[in-house]
Structures are given as C-alpha cells and as structure tokens.
Amino acid sequence: MTTPERTKKGRRLIIAMDGPAGVGKSTVGQLVAKDLGYFFVNTGEMYRALTWKAMEEKVDVTDESAVMSLARRLSWEFLPSENGSSLKTYLDGESVAAHIRAEDVSRKTSAVAAMPSVRQFLCDLQRRLGQEGGVVMEGRDIATHVFPNADVKIYLDASIEERAKRRIRQLRSSGHPAQLASVRDAILQRDRNDLERKINPLAYAEGATLIDSTRLSLHEVARKILKIVHERQKR
C-alpha cells in the first residue's frame, strides 16, 4: 500500500465520523480536514473501488473468496486530490474516482461490504492510513471498530428526505442521471444493509457526538465539528 508522507508535526488527532448513506459525511469531512490541515479519508470509496474492479474483471461480487483474491493482488495507493487534503483511491495506478459513483456500483457494494474478510482487509488499510493522526475518516464503523479510541467521534444523521435530495444533487453534479424515488429507495435499502450487517454494523459509538444535519448546511455542521475538535485539542 502506498500513502503520502505527512509533513506537519505536533499533536494531530484522529477524527472518526460515522453515519448512514447520503448524510453529507464526505463534504463535511473534507471541510473539516481542509481547515485543520489534515487528510480526509472516505472509507466507502475503498469498498466501491473494490466492487467496481470486481465488476470490471467479471468477478462474482457475491463470491467472498474470489473478491478477496482480487483485493490482495491489487496495488492499493492513496494519494492527495487536487485540493491536497482528500486521499483518493488508486487501484493498479488508476484513479477510481470516475467509476465508482454509478448506482449499479452502489447497489453491489453492499454485498462486498458485508464480507468479513473484505472488511478486515480494508480495516487494516484504514488503520495504517490513520494511525499517525492528522486524519478525518468517515464511514459506517470508524468510531465503533476501526478507531474505537479516536480522539473525536461524530455520528452524523439527517432525515431520509434530506439525504435523498443531497444524493440526487451529488449524482447530477457528477453527470449521473437520477430520480428521487429510486434514490430514496436505494438509500433505505443501504440503511437496512448497514444496520443489519452481522460484521461491524452501523451503530452509534460510545462517546460519540450526535449531529442532526437535516436543518443545517454542511458548512454549519463542519463548524460544529471544528468547535469540538478545538476543545479537544486544548485538553
């Protein structure tokens, strides 16, 4: 696994952020990371990347052994995006960004993300990315499993209606056609998959701060988190 070098010194926190699909974790996480000079890691991108690669190589995404064999033989790299803060996933030297937001990838990712060996494999990568601190990492099990001792734990939530609207905007801005009803149904199904998954399901971590972003802009959410972070840094 290839990762960028960290150059800033001093006390650098691990900020773990969990929450359901479409709640705005990626946008908020990037805002927080940029303000702090940290790296932002979207762990869902890793699961999507592996799913997309499996689809490209005609690997059965329900065959755990085959998916894990693919995961192990891939070259995983995490390199800064143009804004310098987000770490983007590269597989065998290729950026996955243009491939992983399609709805067919989203639907099939749930099966891959439910595989115990895949979750452990990617958890190990995630811990290596964040172990030195100076990271904002978001996903479904970051505060509960990947970094249960994170310095700051956030659980971000919002109503299903608001989450569907945000997902529609994200898809359309990326050039993907989307209908509100189908996106809403897809989010509800992902919620069920995340909550009912036997291995590291989505859950509210002990010591986490709950933020309901339904009536807040994502910039307002980021400011709330930064306030929590700055208070933690003073201790």
Descriptive keywords:
alpha/beta, Rossmann fold, 9 helices, 16% strand
Report helical residue fraction: 40-55%
The largest pleated sheet is described as: 8 strands, mixed
Task: Give the low-pLDDT segments.
Answer: none
Radius of gyration: 17 Å
CATH superfamily: P-loop containing nucleotide triphosphate hydrolases
> What proportion strand?
15-25%
How does this structure look, described?
This protein has one domain: Rossmann fold (3-Layer(aba) Sandwich), CATH 3.40.50. Helices cover 49% and strands 16% of the residues. The protein has helices spanning 25-36, 43-56, 64-73, 103-113, 116-130, 142-146, 160-173, 180-196, 218-233, and strands at 14-18, 39-42, 76-80, 86-91, 94-95, 135-139, 152-157, 209-212. Strands 1, 2, 3, 4, 5, 6, 7 and 8 form an eight-stranded mixed sheet that branches. A hairpin with a 2-residue loop joins strand 4 and strand 5. Helix 1 (25-36) crosses helix 9 (218-233), helix 2 crosses helix 4 and helix 7 packs across helix 8. It is globular. The mean pLDDT is 92.
